[in-house]
UniProtKB/TrEMBL annotation, chains A, B:
Transmembrane segments: none annotated. It comes from Cuscuta epithymum. This is proline--tRNA ligase. Keywords: Aminoacyl-tRNA synthetase, ATP-binding, Ligase, Nucleotide-binding, Protein biosynthesis. It holds the Pfam family tRNA-synt_2b.
Length: 506, 506
C-alpha cells in the first residue's frame, strides 16, 4: 500500500507524502514561521490548497471552529435585536461607485463577471468585496420615520477581494467567509454605543474563545475604513513574525454613506433628518490568528472552547493484558464525558499504534488526550495528557468528569495567559526614530507618542518601506498611557497628541 | 407625513405606496396568481426586488424561516456524522469541464469572472453552479483506503445559475442559498441508503416544517441530475398554477464522477476499488413553495414551526377603559408565552390603530393574534384569532400557555391537511393522450401509465410545447398504484412499465 500511495502522491505534488503519515512537521515555528504555518494548516486538516491561487478549501476541522464562534456571535447579536438577512453577491458598477472614497479603497480588488454561458453581459457586474453599496439604497427605501429606526441587519456570507499580495490561508485569501453587520440609527450617540458593543463581542471572540489577547483601539485616519467616519479595532500580534494583525473592525460610518444613498427619516419633531450608520465584520481570519498564536512544533493547539473535539481517548493495549477491559473502559469514559457535555471521542482504530495516534491528535491540536492501559485499568485511573504544556496527570476514574472539566478550563486560561505574556514581552516603547527602527527590526510591537497627522504616517510608511513591508499604525489604544506635556512625536518631532501602536502587519 | 411619504414613493416606483400602507393586496390569489405571488413576498417583507434582474434581497422575515429549517437539517446531518466544510466559490474551466454530461447541463447558465480591478484574468474563472467538479478532485486526494470511507461533507453556501427564463423570487433566481451534501462510500448499498435517508429529511422539512405535502419518487432519465446515476426527489404541487415543483433532490451519482476524478481506494481485500457517490441539496426555493401553497388574499400564512413570530399580542384600548391594565395584560401574556418557548411579541405602537395592526400581521402571516381589550380584561380572558382559518376563540388567561400551544399545533396540522386535500383533489389519472391533454389543461397533476422511455418523454415535451411550457415527468412515485398487465403507455401505446406523475413545472 505504501508504494501505491507514494506513486499517487508523487503524481500530485510532493507535500502529500508527509500529510499521509501525519507524523510531524518539517518546519519549526521559531525557525521558518511562514513555512511552518502553511504546513500546519494542511497537516492538521484545516486547509487544503486549491487550484486557484488565493482560494482555499476550509475542511471540517477548521469549519467547526468557525461554527462555534458563529453560534456565539449570532446569539449575542440576536439578543441585541439585530436581524439576519441576505443581500445579493452581485452589485452593479453604478451602485458600487456611488461612494468615491469607498470605491477607491476597493476598486483594484474587485472581481468582475462579464459573461454568462457564451454571452457577454450588457454591463459587467461586480462581486461584493463588502456590502455597503449593495445594502444602503434599500435602507433608503425602508426607512421613512423615526419608528423605522434603528434598522439593524447582519448577514453571514462570502466576499471576494482579488488581492495580489501574498495569499495566506485564513489570513489573506481572495474569497473568505465573514459576518457583516449594517445598522442605521437616529442619533450619533446610539451609533457610537453600538460600535463599542460590537467591538466588545469581537474582543470576547478573541480572548474568551480563541484565547488570544487583543488591544481595543481606534484606527488612524489613514487606516480607517474607506468612506467611514472612524474605525475601531481589536488588534492582535504575532510574536513569531513580529507583525500586528487586525482582528476585527467595527466602523462608525457617520452620515457619509447616508448622504450618498439618501437615507433620510422624519424625526420626532417632524423634521427631515439623516441617519447615522455603522458597519462591522469579523472573518475566518480569526482561525489563522489562532493557529499562529498557539500552534507549536507538534502542530495545532486548540483552545477547548473552540475545539470540536476536546478530548481524545486512546486505548493502550498490551499483549497479555485485558484488551476487552481496556476498550470497555474507553467506551465508558467517552460516555461519562459526553454526559457532561464534553466533546469527546475514542480512537479505537486497530491499524494504528498508540504512538501514531498520539502524534496524530497532537497535530490536530486536541486539548486533552486520555490514555487507558492495563496499569490504568488495574488502578481504576486514566492518564491525561495536556496538549498545551505536555503535562501528564493520572486521575481516578471516579472523578473523571469533574477533573476533565476543570482541566479544560485550566487549558483555556493557560493558553490565554501564555499568549498574553508573550505578547506583552514584545511591546516596546519608542520615543525617537532610532528607537522606533530598532524596535521594528527586533520584531517588537512598538508603542510610540505620535502627533496623529496623516502625512506623518505616510512619511513613516515611506521611510520603512522594504522587503518586509512598511510599518504603519496598528491602533491608538483606548487605554492610553500617560502622555506628559512636552512629549514629542517619535517621527515628526512635533508635539505628540496620542500614544499609538505601530508595526508591520498582515 | 403621509404626503411626504407618497412623494418619496412616487419618486421610486409605483409599487411602494401600497407597501407603505401594508393594508391588503391588489391581486387575488385565484385570479392573478403570478402577480399575487410577487406582491405578497414584497408586502410581507420577505423579499425586496434588487436592481439586478433575477437577484433578490432576502429580508429578515424570510431569512428567519431559512434559519429555522437550517437548524433542524444541520442537527440531523450532524447526527449522521456528516461534517460541514467550505469549498471555494470559483472553479477553473478545466475542472468544470471534466464531466461531459454534467457540464453540458450547466454550461449555459455559468457566470464567468474575467477581470479583477482593471486587469484581465489570464484564464476566466467560473462561479459555482454546484460543487461536484470543485470538490471531487480533493476527494481523490483525501481518500486512500477503506478506512477513509465514508467521506460525508456538506456546505451551506450561495450558488449562481445565470438563467434567462422568468426569474421569480425564491423559486427561480440567479443566485440562491442552499446546502449541498457530497458523500463517498465503499459500496453502492451504503450510497443507496443515504440517498433515501436524506430524502426523508427533505420530506420532513416540507411536511413537518412547511406543512406542504410532497411525493417521494424517482426522476426520469431525462430529468435526472446531469452526470448522475439516478435522482430521487420530493415533488410538491401548486394547485393555483397547476404546476409541479421540484422540492429538493437527493442524487446517487454512481461511479461516474469518481471515474472522472479518479476517486479510488484500497478495499478490505487490498484491491483497488472505486467509490460510490451521492450529492443532495435543498434551497431557498422551499420558502417560495410555502408562500404559494399557504398564502391567501390577506397575505402570507406561516406554519407555526417556521414562524419567527408565532403569536402577536395587540392591545385594543377603548377611550374610557383601563388602558394601563390592558397594556399590563399584554406584557404578562407575552411573558407567560415566552416562558413556554413560544415566539411572541406585543405590538404596542401608539401610532397605528388595532385594525391596521390586524391587517399588518395578517399580511406577514403570523399564525395567531391575541387581542386584549376592556371586555377581555374584565372577563380575565383574551381573544385569539387564527390566521389559517380566521376562527376567533376566547380563552381564559389562566390556561393561556397550554391553550396557545395546542392551537399552534392544530394550525400546523390544519395547514398540512388542507394543503394535502387540495393537492389530492388535483390528481387526475390519465390513461390516454386525450385524457392527458385535458387533465393538463385543467391544471391537474397527471398520473399516467408510462413505458419509461426517454424518447417518449421527449416526444410528450415536443407535443405539449406552447405558451405555458411543455409538460414533462415530475417523478415516478415510490408508492406505485397497481399496474394491471396489459396497461398501455398513455403517450406511446407501448406496454406501460410504471406510473409516473406528469405536468408543467416551475
Amino acid at each position: 500500500m505504501a508504494s501505491k500511495e507514494s506513486k499517487r502522491s508523487s503524481a500530485k505534488g510532493k507535500k502529500e507524502v508527509k500529510k499521509e503519515t501525519g507524523l510531524g512537521l518539517t518546519y519549526k515555528k521559531d525557525e521558518n514561521f511562514g513555512e511552518w504555518y502553511s504546513e500546519v494548516v494542511v497537516n492538521a486538516e484545516m486547509i487544503e490548497y486549491y487550484d486557484i491561487s488565493g482560494c482555499y478549501i476550509v475542511r471540517p476541522w477548521a469549519m467547526s471552529i468557525w461554527e462555534i464562534m458563529q453560534t456565539f456571535f449570532d446569539a449575542e447579536i440576536k439578543k441585541m435585536n439585530i436581524k439576519n438577512c441576505y443581500f445579493p453577491l452581485f452589485v452593479t458598477p453604478a451602485a458600487l461607485q456611488k461612494e468615491k472614497d469607498h470605491v477607491e479603497g476597493f476598486a483594484p480588488e474587485v472581481a468582475w463577471v462579464t459573461k454568462s454561458g457564451d454571452s457577454e453581459l450588457e454591463v459587467p457586474i461586480a462581486i461584493r468585496p463588502t456590502s455597503e453599496t449593495i445594502m444602503y439604497p434599500y435602507f433608503s427605501k425602508w426607512i421613512r420615520g423615526h419608528r423605522d429606526l434603528p434598522l439593524r441587519l447582519n448577514q453571514w456570507c462570502n466576499v471576494v477581494r482579488w488581492e495580489f499580495s501574498h495569499p495566506t490561508p485564513f489570513i489573506r485569501s481572495r474569497e473568505f467567509l465573514w459576518q457583516e453587520g449594517h445598522t442605521a440609527f437616529a442619533t450619533k450617540e446610539e451609533a457610537d454605543a453600538e460600535v463599542l458593543d460590537i467591538l466588545e463581542l469581537y474582543r470576547r471572540i478573541y480572548e474568551e474563545f480563541l484565547a488570544i489577547p487583543v488591544t481595543k483601539g481606534k484606527k488612524s485616519e489613514l487606516e480607517k475604513f474607506a468612506g467611514g467616519l472612524y474605525t475601531t479595532t481589536v488588534e492582535a500580534f504575532i510574536p513569531n513574525s513580529g507583525r500586528g494583525i487586525q482582528g476585527a473592525t467595527s466602523h462608525c460610518l457617520g452620515q457619509n454613506f447616508a448622504k450618498m444613498s439618501e437615507i433620510f427619516f422624519e424625526n420626532e419633531k417632524g423634521e427631515k433628518a439623516m441617519v447615522w450608520q455603522n458597519s462591522w465584520a469579523y472573518t475566518t481570519r480569526t482561525i489563522g490568528v489562532m493557529v499562529m498564536v498557539h500552534g507549536d512544533d507538534k502542530g495545532l493547539v486548540l483552545p477547548p472552547k473552540v475545539a470540536s473535539l476536546q478530548v481524545i481517548v486512546i486505548p493502550v493495549p498490551y499483549k497479555d493484558a485485558d484488551t476487552q477491559g481496556i476498550f470497555d473502559a474507553c467506551s465508558s469514559t467517552v460516555q461519562k464525558l459526553l454526559e457532561c457535555g464534553i466533546r469527546v471521542e475514542a480512537d479505537i482504530r486497530d491499524n494504528y499504534s498508540p504512538g501514531w495516534k498520539y502524534s496524530h491528535w497532537e497535530m490536530k491540536g486536541v486539548p486533552l488526550r486520555i490514555e487507558i492501559g492495563p496499569k490504568d485499568l488495574a488502578n481504576k485511573q486514566v492518564r491525561v495528557v495536556r496538549r498545551d504544556n505536555g503535562a501528564k496527570i493520572d486521575i481516578p476514574m471516579e472523578s473523571i468528569a469533574e477533573d476533565v472539566k476543570g482541566m479544560l478550563v485550566a487549558i483555556q486560561q493557560n493558553l490565554f495567559d501564555v499568549a498574553k505574556q508573550k505578547r506583552n514581552a514584545c511591546v516596546q516603547v519608542a520615543n525617537t526614530w532610532d528607537e522606533f527602527v530598532k524596535a521594528l527590526n527586533d520584531k517588537k510591537l512598538v508603542l510610540a507618542p505620535w502627533c496623529d497627522e496623516k502625512d506623518v504616517e505616510k512619511d513613516v510608511k515611506a521611510r520603512t518601506k522594504g522587503e518586509m513591508g512598511a510599518a504603519k499604525t496598528l491602533c491608538c489604544p483606548f487605554e492610553q498611557p500617560e502622555l506628559p506635556e512636552g512629549t514629542l512625536c517619535f517621527a515628526s518631532g512635533k508635539p505628540a497628541k496620542i500614544w499609538s501602536y505601530w508595526g508591520r502587519s498582515y
